[in-house]
Each structure stands twice: as structure tokens, then as C-alpha cells.
Amino acid sequence: KKPKNFPPGPPVLPILGNILHLNLQNPLEDFEKLRKSYGNVYSLFLGPEPTVVINGLKAMKEAMVIKAAEFAGRPQDMFINEVTQRKGMAFADYGSSWREHRRFSLMTMRNFGLGKKSMEERIHDETQYIIKTLDKNIGKTMSPQVMFHNAASNIMCQVLFGTRYEYDDTIIRTFIQSVTEITKITNGPWAVLYSSFPSIRKLPLPFSKAFKQMKHKKTRVPGEPRDFIDCYLDELGKRPDDSTFSEDKLIFTAIDLQFAGTDTTSNTLLTAFLYLMNYPHIQERCQQEIDRVLEGKDRASFDDRHQMPYVQAVTHEVQRIANTVPLSVFHSTTKDTELMGYSIPKGTMIIQNLRSVLNEEGQWKYPHEFNPGNFLNDQGEFVKPEAFMPFSAGPRMCLGEGLARMELFLIMVTLLRKFKFIWPEDAGEPDFTPIFGITLTPRPYPMKVQLRSSQ
Ligand code: HEM
């Protein structure tokens, strides 16, 4: 039954709710149609579960930023909660365990160089392996998918465990296959809840190896942490027995971070190169700016972005168009609340349609085309519109934003400086429509690599 003054929505069928209103393969177009019929805040029943879908900057801000805590819960009756035994962070409800783990993770990653030089070094080190792979493929056509997944995964492994894996390592290959599989079978909000996650159980995650190596943690020197795991173990030692910290929570928090940080970053990189190959004038303009700013320098630093308004505009435009986490991670209300005049009871599932903000008419100069002009003013300076929300907003906002932005900038700049990326003549028309899942994945595509003649 619809609660009183609940947001409007399509007629609800018994048991099925509104499932038939949504295309199981990809509900994003249906979400858009429903927005046109019912407005920026509408309701849906995913089976018996009352759900509110939030669209557009105004409603999104009211919920996530102004009401913040009231919309910062996570549904707790999903399959994922069983799988993570309610011990992780990303799916934990709004409360002390989530808050303390989030704060700790942010602080640790920052001290570890998230946003600082040492993190840059880790990204540069991993980029050298990408370069090695590309060097082997000069003049050839290759598929960049596994390479970018590996790189993103390794950067997270470095932060968490102080380890990386060779690109042909069987463990990392199986991990990447599983992540890709999950993205493929995670086809709709209900599948997010049920069908996809059993496969998580059988994942031979890099952690299984890393945790076996936790014996390597016997080599740790308390107070001299080498990575996230060491930091957590140090912290665990300091906290009282009844604290929210435990070894189990460490494992699930690490899994959350590894998952959240791999597919997101690699799919964004894949989107970047898909577009850069098909908009060669944009690629060239980036290269001109990079050559100019980095002249005489060995390599780029994250600070160089301030001298590269065009490249900044391109990296942001890539994120806008990639719309990598289109429905964010589902939220739930933590108390009875209101949004845009409607009443929403405590415990209602909330879906943020981030795409509706990232391509909202009235917020962007070119909402429906790939155009770095969306982030440039008349003087050619970089500007970031408020509707740039690929990381969501409010207390649950992506905690890897700093790391992700640094990765995208440094990897793109370093590769564009050295290589030219070409859409192969025999590749036909590019298909820009991504595969739907928790993250949007570009369809596999070929890439031709050349060394830049000017280098
Ligand atoms: C381009 C890359 C990325 C994008 C687009 C992205 C996007 C998002 C989005 C939309 C959310 C949901 C926020 C919400 O519920 O309101 C999220 C959550 C999260 N992200 Fe990211 N993310 C990226 C990279 C990363 C990286 C590199 C890490 C790891 C360091 C990470 C860690 C997390 C975590 C732990 C959460 C859950 C936060 C919480 O529940 O409090 N993400 N991300």
C-alpha cells in the first residue's frame, strides 16, 4: 500500500509491483520516461518494496545535501547484506560502525598519500606497466579492457595490501573475469539485490591471496604501517574490545574498497579512450596542452592540472558522459521525512538517478553530446557546474573521489603524452551505448596504438 502523500508513480500490480514497467536489461530509459510522466520525485514498487527515485539537481540536493542524514541509510534486507554479513562499510546502514570505518578509511588513505605525492608515485608506478603493455602493441590493434582493469585493481591492491599482480597473473585474471561477470549479470535493480551476488562468494579475490599473506602481517611492525591493512591492525590494537573494529570488519572493508575502486575507475578510463579515439581533434588538443605544460619535465604531477584547463575539462566531460555508477548505490531513509513536498516514511529505499543530473537540460551547455565545452567558460578556464555529481553528494558520497580523480588525470595525461590512440579503420562505427550494471561498462572495443611522432 502506498503511504500517505507518497510521491506519485505508475499503477502498482500485486506482488510484482512495477517490475513490468522496467526493462530488465537496462532500466535507464524507463527511469527517464517515468520522470517525464511523474516528475523528479516518483515512486516505484520493486516487488513489494516501496522505492523513491530521485531525479534532477534540485531534488538530489534537497535529499542528499540539505536533508543529508535523513537520506544516508542503506537498505538492510538485500542479499548483499547477507553476503557481506553486515560487516562492510559501503552497504552498512547509517550508524557508528559505518561512520567510524568511513572516517578511518578516508584518513588512512589520505595519510597514505591519497591526494599526496606518495599516492601519485603508486599511480605512476602502475602506469609504467600500462606503458609496457602499450609498447608491445605499437602499430597493432589491441583490446584495452583487461589492461585498464588490471591497472585500477593493482592501484587498490597497493593501497590496501602493498602488493601488485602481474597482468597475466592467474589470480588477478580470475578476479577481473568475476568483476566483469558481475557487471554483466547485474542487470537491474532487482538483480542487484539477488541474482548477481552469489558469484561474489566464489570470487577468488586478490584478497584471498593477500589475506593468506596476512601471515605477512606477522612481519608488520606495529606503529610502522606499510599499507591499509597494517593501519587497521594498529588501530584495532588501540581500540577497546567493544569497539566497532574487528578483523572481520577489516576483511569486508578491504573488499568494499577493492570492489568500489576497481570497476569504477577502469570503466571510466575505457570510456575516456573510446571517446578520445573517436574525437581525434579533442585528443590532439589535449596533447598540445600536455606538451606545453610538461615541457622539460619527466612526468606529470597532479598539481599540473591547474595549468591544464582543457585536459581537466576533458577528464570531467568523460566522467559526465560515462555516468559510471548510474543509479549510485541504493540509499534508504533513516527517519520519516519529506522531499519536494512529498512524505517518505523511514526505511524507504531511495534510488538516485545520477544520470538525470549529469545530463539535465538547463544545467549544461551541451547536455546530450560529448563536449569539453561543458566545463569551460568563455575565457577557456575550467569551471565545474554544480550538477557534476558522478560521485554522488552528501555524507555517503564516494570516499574514493580523490584517488579516482588523481588516477584518471595522471593515467590519461601520461598515456596521451606518449601515444596516439586511433580507432582502427576496420572497426566500423563505434557503439557508445554501454552495458548496464551497477557500473556502466563500455562495450569491448579495439584500439590502435602509435608512438607520437613528436616524442
Ligand atoms: C571514477 C571512479 C568512481 C566513481 C564514479 C565512483 C562513484 C561512487 C558512487 C556514485 C558511490 C555511491 C555514493 C552514494 O551512495 O551516495 C560511491 C560509493 C563509494 N565509493 Fe566510489 N566511485 C569511484 C571510485 C572509487 C574508488 C577509487 C574507491 C576506493 C578508494 C571508491 C570507494 C567507494 C566507497 C567505499 C563507497 C561507499 C561509501 C559509503 O557508503 O559511505 N570509489 N562511489
From TrEMBL:
The keyword Metal-binding applies. Heme binds at C398. Pfam families: p450 (PF00067). Its cofactor is heme. One of its GO terms (biological process) is xenobiotic metabolic process. GO terms for cellular component: cytoplasm; membrane. InterPro entries: Cyt_P450, Cyt_P450_CS, Cyt_P450_E_grp-I, Cyt_P450_sf, Cytochrome_P450_fam2. Transmembrane segments: none annotated. It is found in: Membrane. GO terms for molecular function: heme binding; iron ion binding; oxidoreductase activity, acting on paired donors, with incorporation or reduction of molecular oxygen, reduced flavin or flavoprotein as one donor, and incorporation of one atom of oxygen. Keywords: Heme, Iron, Membrane, Metal-binding, Monooxygenase, Oxidoreductase, Signal. Its main location: membrane. Belongs to the cytochrome P450 family. This is Cytochrome P450 2F2-like. The gene is LOC103365413.
